[in-house]
Specification:
Layout lengths: L1 H19 L5 H9 L15 H17 L4 H18 L14 H9 L11 H5 L11
């Protein structure tokens, strides 16, 4: 169930995150609050408007509603999701596989808003043309 969670939730988060960056929604939904901090830290992962925060967590909860699993597994998946969001907002540079999203990719997102929307992976950014490798702009 973990791979299905990662791929499914990441797909939904990708489109939701890309959507809240649209000029019509960016201020209205409150995602601009999250991007006020250009320098990402673990604390900036929690800097969001309540509406934006609710929307960003919706894919994980919707997955658990639609895909039956043991409550402990569900709690573990939510913990994984939260810890991953904290990790991609940390400046600690860690190496992962080519498709896993890290703080390096997410820092690009905070510097250049039109790239790297994925939460867990860079898969959907690569598929839909919004991937920007770290170091391209430096």
């Amino acid at each position: 169930v973990v791979p299905l969670f990662v791929v499914g939730v990441d797909f939904a988060v990708y489109w939701l995150h890309r959507g809240v960056h649209h000029r019509v929604f960016y201020e209205r939904i409150g995602h601009a609050v999250h991007h006020r901090e250009r320098f990402v830290t673990p604390f900036s992962s929690f800097a969001f408007h309540p509406i934006d925060g609710a929307l960003q967590t919706l894919p994980a909860y919707a997955f658990l509603f639609c895909v039956p699993c043991h409550p402990d597994v569900g709690a573990g998946l939510l913990a994984l999701s939260n810890l991953w969001v904290i990790a991609i907002h940390d400046v600690w540079s860690w190496r992962a596989g080519a498709l896993l999203s890290t703080s390096r990719q997410h820092t690009v997102h905070h510097e250049r808003f039109s790239y790297n929307y994925g939460q867990f992976t860079t898969l959907w950014d690569r598929v839909f043309g919004s991937y920007c490798p770290p170091g391209k702009w430096q």
